[in-house]
Amino acid sequence: MEDDVPKHKYSLVIKDLGPALGRLSLYNVTFLPLLCKLFSAKTRTLLMNAVPWKAVHEVRDMVMYMHEFSVKIYEEKRRALEEGDEAVMRQLGQGKDILSILMKDNINAGAEDKLGEDEIIAQMSTFIFAAMDTTSNAMSRVLQLLTLHPDVQDKMRQEISQARWECQGESLSYDELVALPYLDAVCRETMRLYPPIAHIFRRAMEDSVVPLSKPVRGLDGLEITEVIVPKGTVVDISIINSNRNTDFWGPDAMEWKPERWLSSLPDSIANAKIPGVYSHLMTFNGGGRSCIGFKFSQLEMKVIISMLVEKFKFSPAPGKDICWQMSVISSPAVLGGDGHPRLPLLVESAK
Ligand code: HEM
What is the pTM of this model? Predict the structure, then answer.
């Protein structure tokens, strides 16, 4: 949150990956899945080197950087594990971070469950990509909303301070933290109205007929109740439109109202049977490929936000308007002199 701290290259790469993939969208939709099916990683790299398209080279370099970064983390963690407990404790996270846990569990796994080195490194890249900017940008969004709604911020601070007082100033346990209703309502409402991933894409594996939740009228005046989706069609699943659907959430669906979570939700939501894994929302998707980190991300958000809001008051930085870049993962942007997005929050002590 500080203007003059240089950004880590990884976070810059991750922010640019979405737009870079967007520039590749034609190849992405048509050629890339085919390339992956037909050729090994090595041949794919050779082919990417050979084609004269800048957009392809940009994505290649980004993916290579992310891969090399995962290899570096893997090597450091492997060395620490080999050297023993003391070396593990000296690392950031003291061996309790997800990547160390993954590696330790893999050492103890039976032969049929053990992952190869390449796969561990690939899983690391997936975790870093899927877990990092999604949760941190969601937290930025919460903090920004708190600057715009100081009454909500005060109420939240009061709830947190009261809980701390009740446990004699000790850190709140997991159960105590997740039981704070107002903090929970703020997180849920932010995840509803501003899902960090607004759209996901799927390719139909077979010819399908998708029923519409309510009929629409075509230009010829006829009522349409279902849509034919031929095999191979790429479908854009709009998470954000499901979360903001006034038929389910009511006429105030576009308003940020944490209070809506403090009383029982309207029947229209239960009846809508949204298939998402979290809170009648599509924010973390649903089904077999839904987010495996949604509980973890909620915990991370609550731990960090509760600590910050207890200690600091957040207010908008004068003269700086935040806009949100809606790429793969939406991120806050105020362009600084160097052309990179900044998060302009003015932080002062709450005491
Ligand atoms: C606010 C935070 C987060 C949001 C909004 C979010 C959202 C999502 C969504 C929408 C998907 C499905 C993507 C698709 O299928 O195209 C997904 C997948 C995934 N997420 Fe998250 N995620 C968050 C945090 C995390 C965290 C903290 C972790 C790990 C600790 C994580 C790990 C994953 C993984 C590994 C997948 C791929 C699952 C699979 O394909 O089987 N996510 N996430």
Answer: 0.87
